[in-house]
Every structure is written in C-alpha cells, then in structure tokens.
C-alpha cells in the first residue's frame, strides 16, 4: 500500500494552491507547512550549519537559517560529486537544474513529510521567455531538471502550478514539474504535481540508458502526465487523474505516455500501485504510446501489474493511439493481475496480458539490473 506520507486527494496540488492563495491573502510569504519541524530545528534530525551531517552537506531554508535561502543557489555551490542538500520546510518558488557534473547528489526534505517542502514554478511549453527569444518548450517548462547520475530525493514535492484557465491564449499547455534524465535516479516518498506532462522520466540522449526508481510516490495530472524514454520502475505509487471542467466528453487524458527506444528492452514498469481519479468514471485512458519526431523508430513499452485501477480508467478501451501511424497494438503494452473496476477485461483484445512465464521477467530486479535502490535506504 502507498506510504502514509502520501496525501489524500484533498491535499493534492489543488489543495496546495488553495493553501498558497489563503497564505497570500493573509500576507504570508508562503503556505504554512503541514508538519513543520519547528522554529528551533528547521532541519529536523539532519543537523544544521553548526553541526553538519558531513562536510558535503549543505542546508537550505527560505527563512535564512541555513547556508542558502534557495535551492538553486545551493545547487550552484554543490559542485562535484556526493553532495547532500537538506531542505527546511517551505515553498521554494524557483526553477532548478542539476547538470551532469553534479553526480551522486541527495536531496532530503527535513521534516520527512513531502507536503512541507515544495519546489514549484509556473512555466509552460508556450510561455514566452523574458528575453523574447521564443517560448520555453516542453523541456524548458520544467520546474526541476536532473541530468546527473545517481540522484536521490526523499520527502519533497516537485510541482508546476501553471493552469490552462489562467492562460487561454497559450496553446502549448505542457507544464513539467520535473524532468529526470540521469541513470540511477531514485525518488521515495515524493510528490509530483501538475496537469499535462507532470513527470518527464527520460534520458539525456536517444542512445543513453537511464534507470529510475520511484517508490511510495504520489503523481497527479491529466494529459500524458508520466512520460518519456527512461527505464523506470514505479513501486507502491499512487497515480491520480484530475477532473477537467474544460472538456465535455472523454477522454480527459492519459496516465502514461512512454517513448521507449526500440533498442531498450525495458520501458516503464508499474507494480503494486494504484490509479485513482477525481474525474467521472471511464474518462481516462491508462496509456498511449509516444513516438516523438526525434525518434520515429521508438517502440514504447509499459507493463502495469498487481495494481488497482479505479473506475476512472476506461476498462473497455484503456489504450489509444497518439498517432494513427503508430498504433498502440504495435507497441509493448501489457498487464498482469491488476484489480479494480478499471482493470476488468471486457474486450480481451484491448487488454494484452502477460503469461505467468512472461511475468517472471517483469520485476524491478530485471528492469534495474545491478542497481537495487530499495536496499540503499531510499
């Protein structure tokens, strides 16, 4: 079952936005953390600038009690490999990028509750850049970008709070909360909040193999909100589809849109998780394959197993095409022993199932190889 640190639906991204709006109305700088560690110990059990966990540890606090007040400035200072950032409770409204040179980095939410530490911004694909050089594009819209190998995050919320309703003039509505490209990237007890293209689980280049692991995480959105070409395992995660008042007919969106390269034997694996919905029944597809223009040979791969699919998923036709040129039936989509109303097999040809023998290869160990993050205290 998902971790108790995961928020119930009313503490999702919409709840966070409401809390921020209320805080602004009261003249507060940020929303009040849900479970703050206290004024005297903003970094909880993870030390302080006066008593560092290690010489490689830096402390971030928007109220000035750490080494830095922003995550971006801490990342700039954390050069080299093996650096740890401890983030005090607060809302960090900024964009952050971890380049490929900053390997083996660890970010820790000090309160050990992801609702307390929020990194958020509001760029979208179609948002104009301030210098007039065009728009950000999907990749450029990311609030947080991680290119380095060996990145670990615990108890942090990564969010993009750009809303379509606030920008009716913008048609490029993809708004990424985080783009992860590094190999051996692990996220536990984290939240990923957005609408379209929330979690971009990718790699740094077409021929680069990137393994990622998400455990006890909460991910929400509407259109293709978990997408990319990484080899990624999602274990004990909660995926939640949002309601859409701007549409009058289904589908409202798609949970997964993998773009696995044809040479990669593993794509996305969802195991022991659940999919819930704030939308009417059957308004969402489980997945559609993304074959990007940069890789027309891609053969997207998704396996969902031992997972509860709520009534928001269209059980009759859970998959659809993104492009007629690349029908979903020609991709690598499969299920195994799923439960719930969204998993009911009513049209067998629309629900490809693994055999018991095939399922023995659809494991986190098979996908991640010699990397076992669940044994590393993640």
Main features:
378 residues, mainly beta
Description:
- The model is unreliable at about 1-15 and about 15-35 (pLDDT under 50).
- The chain has a 10-stranded parallel β-sheet.
- It is about 10% helix and about 25% strand.
- The chain has 5 helices and 25 strands.
- It is mainly β.
- The longest helix has 13 residues, at about 15-25.
- The protein starts with 12 loop residues before the first helix and ends in a 10-residue tail after the last helix.
Task: Outline the low-pLDDT stretches.
Answer: 1-14, 17-34
Binned, the helix content reads under 10%
Backbone CA Rg: 20 Å
Order of helices and strands: HEHEEEEEHEEEEEEEEEEEEEEEEEEEHH
Structural class: mainly beta
* Main sheet summary: 10 strands, parallel
Q: What is the molecular shape?
A: globular
Please indicate the percent range of residues in DSSP E strands (runs of 2 or more): 25-35%
User: How many strands in all?
Assistant: 25
Mean pLDDT score, rounded? 91
Number of helices: 5
| Span between termini | 17 Å
Question: What is the spatial order of strands in the main beta sheet?
Answer: 1-2-5-8-11-14-17-20-23-25
Please give the structural blueprint.
Layout: H1 13-25, E1 57-60, H2 71-77, E2 84-87, E3 90-93, E4 96-98, E5 106-109, E6 117-121, H3 137-140, E7 144-146, E8 152-154, E9 157-160, E10 178-180, E11 185-188, E12 191-193, E13 199-201, E14 211-215, E15 218-221, E16 223-228, E17 231-235, E18 238-241, E19 253-258, E20 268-271, E21 274-277, E22 284-287, E23 301-305, E24 308-309, E25 332-336, H4 356-359, H5 364-368
Parallel strand pairs: 1-2, 2-5, 3-6, 4-7, 5-8, 6-9, 7-10, 8-11, 9-12, 10-13, 11-14, 12-15, 13-16, 14-17, 15-18, 16-19, 17-20, 18-21, 19-22, 20-23, 21-24, 23-25
């Amino acid at each position: 079952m998902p971790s108790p640190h995961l928020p119930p639906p009313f503490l999702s991204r919409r709840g966070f936005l409401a809390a921020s709006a209320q805080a602004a109305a009261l003249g507060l700088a940020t929303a009040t953390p849900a479970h703050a560690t206290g004024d005297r110990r903003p970094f909880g059990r993870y030390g302080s600038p006066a008593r560092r966990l290690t010489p490689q540890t830096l402390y971030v606090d928007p109220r000035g009690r750490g080494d830095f007040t922003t995550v971006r400035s801490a990342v700039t200072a954390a050069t080299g490999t093996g650096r740890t950032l401890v983030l005090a409770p607060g809302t960090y409204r900024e964009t952050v990028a971890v380049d490929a040179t900053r390997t083996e980095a660890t970010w820790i939410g000090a309160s050990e509750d992801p609702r307390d530490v929020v990194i958020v911004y509001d760029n979208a694909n179609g948002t104009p850049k301030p210098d007039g050089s065009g728009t950000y594009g999907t990749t450029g819209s990311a609030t947080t970008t991680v290119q380095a190998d060996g990145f670990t995050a615990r108890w942090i919320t990564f969010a993009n709070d750009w809303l379509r309703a606030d920008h009716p003039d913008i048609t490029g509505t993809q708004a990424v909360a985080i783009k992860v490209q590094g190999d051996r990237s692990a996220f536990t007890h984290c939240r990923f909040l957005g609408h379209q293209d929330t979690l971009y689980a990718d790699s740094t280049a077409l021929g680069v193999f990137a393994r990622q692991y998400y455990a006890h995480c909460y991910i929400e959105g509407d259109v293709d909100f978990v997408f990319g070409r990484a080899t990624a395992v999602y274990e004990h995660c909660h995926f939640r589809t949002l309601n859409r008042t701007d549409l009058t007919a289904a589908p409202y969106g798609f949970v997964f849109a993998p773009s696995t390269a044809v040479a990669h034997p593993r794509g996305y694996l969802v195991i022991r998780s659940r999919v819930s919905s704030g939308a009417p029944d059957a308004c969402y597809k489980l997945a559609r394959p993304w074959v990007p223009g940069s890789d027309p040979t891609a053969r997207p791969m998704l396996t969902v197993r031992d997972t509860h699919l709520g009534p928001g998923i269209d059980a009759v036709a859970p998959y659809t095409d993104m492009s007629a040129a690349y029908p979903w039936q020609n991709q690598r989509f499969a299920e195994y022993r799923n439960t719930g109303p969204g998993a009911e097999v009513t049209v067998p040809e629309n629900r490809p199932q693994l055999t018991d023998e095939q399922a023995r290869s659809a494991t986190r160990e098979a996908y991640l190889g010699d990397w076992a993050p669940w044994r590393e205290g993640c």
